[in-house]
Design goal:
Strand order of the largest sheet: 1-2-10-3-9-8-4-7-5-6
GO biological process, one term: positive regulation of transcription by RNA polymerase I
GO molecular function: ATP binding; double-stranded RNA binding; hydrolase activity; RNA helicase activity
Number of helices: 28
InterPro entries: DEAD-box_helicase_OB_fold (IPR011709), DEAD/DEAH_box_helicase_dom (IPR011545), DNA/RNA_helicase_DEAH_CS (IPR002464), HA2_WH (IPR048333), Helicase-assoc_dom (IPR007502), Helicase_ATP-bd (IPR014001), Helicase_C-like (IPR001650), P-loop_NTPase (IPR027417)
Catalytic activity: ATP + H2O = ADP + phosphate + H(+)
CATH architecture of the largest domain: 3-Layer(aba) Sandwich
CATH topology of the largest domain: Rossmann fold
Protein name: RNA helicase
DNA sequence: TAGGCTCTG
């Protein structure tokens, strides 16, 4: 390597030469596309699975809509014809666009400009690989109740297919809904499609996300988050506003998408039965499931053996290299690999996937340290960390152009796997690990642990190298290790607390949640544990039916214990404070902790801390933030995450609106009598209490587990006889967060039934 | 003494 002394310590990592090469999927010519029956496209299959193609088991029901792949030599030229999709390159975290434009009010020259833009885009739309399959897709959806569409990133499926449906008249009796797991995607897709249609957001094309609904009566295509669709189910149980539901990114298997699978399937059946019975004004519901992987057989089997259509994407080839030997320290291996790439490979930035902030900051320091000895002819290697807890200004740094002759190395968590698309990445370094949230249903405890990723996750990471040009993916594990990985990430529904989902199901009319039609069934103990929690909160009665209180709780866009606190705040007359603290607790953390300024950050935090714990400390931060009207410099000086604070204000606003609608006065305040606020929180969190033991540890009142106050808590190191907490997560220990001091006697007052029963 | 990532009319 670059330094003889260090070279002795740092051996070069050998990667296998014969790693799989992912063929180009760039389409030679849209017209060349033809409908070939029965098999997924070989190139696509190989690209996605890394294996030789196998015929799908249900051969009769699959259709191949993919086009001829060409070598990458031609593809660079060809690609220039294809318009770059704006929504892919836009920076995330832009604040929601609140313009609910109305073309009808636009001056004529503006609408003409929109039409002109749409005409230009129309040419490009026709060149997309998917265009040649247009008629087939329309026909299949018209002829079938459910259709599965598999297509890689860049196939244009999410922007084009809803437009095809609209053009074919499928929106005549209802809106075409397209659900997305992420807000940014919903916004950007809607903006792009509005342009292509020749309109502004809020007319034929709109989006609906939390805090921002741009749809109107005339909206034909509506991009929305899956959470919003779940909310709509509460008021429109048959989704009568919709004619087609497109469930996009189905392979991600978020909890909400999984719940939607079962709900839309049931709604489709109910609507069909009503039509059969001659009910008027009911139209059939079409379901389209879109996924990026070839795990389509599972979706098909679930949706009555629905037909599967395969569409090729537009990805450049990515050569995958595995290490010859297993690596004992993947951070060290990543360091070595980054310098190897920098010295041996052509221009292009590097993206390294790590598991968390600590690893990222360690590697950042190491890269800076070793860069000192790098011969000048190689140019600088610039580390750029990115993870969710950063403030937005820091996050934006990764989008700054790389200085000439230098190379950026992006150090990222999974945020770069799906949420953020970083330009100019040619090299991906995959450590094969991520931090994964788990849930032990039997004891009801969440965990956050480093675990191996799945094969589909590894492929997703690999794909990040081939978005703009052919790339290389260095896997810091052997090919054998890859083969041993699970095929897919375990669906979220099997590894999280289900209380919120069950409350939503119950409130949407599902009486027996154990018999619900899950694609992947959560464990019985998981369901029971969550139902017990809802029962303890008073949301379910002895028979497991939804109570009046449960109905009210389901209406609030917060987790069940917080909803309970909100309802209780009316009784305790502290709604203003309850809403504010819930809003503050609903973001990850409002404090930032840059590792190089840890002491300064801790010092800045001290002035907000309340002796009574985190709930009141958070309230102090909000008061400070409002007194300076959210000044950015104030946030920076106090190590407060401004982006998260703005989110807090939005949540507060929404909770105020919801409270008003529920007949609760959101301005009712307890003044400075903060004891009332803590007692109020105990109404939702009485199961999360712990008592100080003679040995100075805290023992949970329910379950008897020894819990540790998280070092970021205002209560860290404090000894109070009794405490309550909002969250318990196992990492290296059982850490509790959101901790405040209480008095043990408050517990019986907060939940007489619960603690009465337990004593009996 | 330490926080993967989403998301809620």
């Amino acid at each position: 390597m670059f330094n003889a002394a260090r070279n002795a310590k740092r051996k070069i990592i050998t990667f296998g030469d014969d790693g799989e090469t992912i063929p180009s999927l760039i389409v030679e010519d849209a017209k060349a596309s033809s409908l070939t029956e029965l098999r997924p496209d070989a190139a696509l299959n190989e690209a996605v699975t890394g294996n030789a193609p196998e015929p799908p088991s249900g051969q009769e029901k699959s259709i191949n809509l993919s086009c001829t792949a060409v070598s990458n030599g031609d593809s660079n030229n060809k690609r220039q014809h294809i318009p770059k999709r704006k929504f892919e390159s836009q920076k995330p975290y832009s604040s929601s666009d609140r313009r609910s434009g109305n073309a009808a009010k636009q001056p004529e020259h503006v609408t003409e400009a929109l039409r002109q833009k749409a005409r230009e885009l129309a040419k490009h739309r026709k060149q997309l690989p998917i265009f040649s399959a247009r008629e087939t897709i329309i026909k299949e959806v018209k002829d079938n109740a459910c259709v599965i569409i598999v297509g890689e990133t860049g196939s244009g499926k999410t922007t084009q297919i809803p437009q095809y449906f609209m053009e074919a008249g499928l929106s005549a009796h209802g809106t075409i809904a397209v659900t997305q797991p992420r807000r940014v995607a919903a916004i950007n897709l809607a903006k792009r499609v509005a342009q292509e249609v020749g309109t502004t957001i809020g007319n034929q094309v709109g989006y609906s996300i939390r805090f921002d609904d741009t749809s109107s009566k005339g909206t034909k295509i509506k991009y929305m988050t899956d959470g919003i669709m779940l909310r709509e189910l509460l008021s429109d149980r048959l989704l009568l506003n919709y004619s087609v539901i497109v469930l996009d990114e189905a392979h991600e298997r978020t909890l909400r998408t999984d719940i939607l699978f079962g709900m839309v399937k049931s709604i489709q059946k109910q609507r069909a039965e009503m039509i059969e019975q001659g009910k008027k004004g009911i139209e059939p519901l079409k379901i389209v499931v879109m996924s990026a992987t070839l795990d389509a057989e599972k979706f098909s089997a679930y949706f009555y053996n629905a037909k599967i259509m395969y569409i090729s994407g537009r990805m450049y080839p990515v050569k995958v290299l595995n290490t010859i030997e297993p690596q004992s320290d993947y951070v060290d291996a990543a360091l070595v690999t980054a310098f190897q790439i920098h010295q041996e490979e052509t221009a292009g930035d590097i993206l390294i996937f790590l598991t968390g902030q600590e690893e990222i900051e360690n590697l950042e320091k190491l890269i800076e340290e070793y860069s000192v000895d790098l011969p000048t002819r190689f140019g600088k290697l610039i580390p750029c960390p990115i993870f969710a807890a950063q403030d937005s200004a820091t996050q934006q740094k990764i989008f700054e152009p790389t200085p000439a002759g230098c190379r950026k190395v992006i150090l990222a968590t999974n945020i770069a796997e799906t949420s953020i698309t970083i330009p100019n990445i040619r090299y991906v370094v995959d450590t094969g690990c991520h931090k994964s949230r788990g849930y032990n249903a039997k004891i009801g405890i969440e965990s956050l642990l480093i675990e191996p990723i799945s094969k589909s996750s590894a492929r997703q990471r690999m794909g990040r190298a081939g978005r703009e040009a052919p790339g290389l993916c260095f896997r810091l594990y052997t090919e054998d290790s890859f083969e041993q990985l699970e095929e897919d990430t375990v669906p979220e529904i099997k590894r999280c607390n289900l209380a919120s989902a069950i409350l939503a199901l119950k409130a949407s009319g599902v009486e027996d949640v154990t018999k619900f039609d899950y694609m992947d069934r959560p464990s019985k103990s998981g369901l029971l544990k969550s139902m017990e929690q809802l029962y303890a909160l008073g949301a379910l009665d002895d028979k497991g039916d939804l109570t009046e209180m449960g109905k009210k709780m389901a209406g609030f866009p917060v987790d069940p214990p917080y909803a309970k606190v909100l309802l209780q705040s009316e009784v305790m007359e502290c709604t203003k404070e309850a809403i504010e603290i819930i809003a503050l607790l609903s973001v990850d953390t409002i404090f930032t902790f840059p590792s190089n300024k840890r002491e300064e950050a801790n010092e800045a935090r001290q002035k907000f801390l309340s002796l009574d714990g985190d709930h009141l400390s958070l309230l102090n931060v909000l008061r400070g933030y409002e007194s300076v009207k959210g000044d950015r410099d104030w946030c920076r000086e106090n190590f407060i995450n401004g982006r998260h604070m703005r989110h807090v204000l939005e949540v507060r606003k929404q909770l105020i609106e919801f409270s008003e609608r529920a007949g609760i006065n959101p301005r009712t305040s307890c003044g400075h009598d903060y004891e009332i606020v803590l007692k109020c929180f105990l109404a939702g969190f009485f199961q999360n209490a712990a008592l100080l033991q003679p040995d100075s540890t805290y023992k949970a009142v329910v379950g008897g587990l020894t819990v540790n106050i998280h070092p970021s808590s205002a209560m860290f190191g404090k000894k109070r006889a009794a405490i309550m907490y909002n969250e318990l997560v196992f990492t290296t220990k059982h850490y509790i967060r959101g901790v405040s001091a209480i008095e043990a006697s408050w517990l019986a007052q907060a939940a007489p039934k619960y603690f009465g029963q337990r004593q009996a």
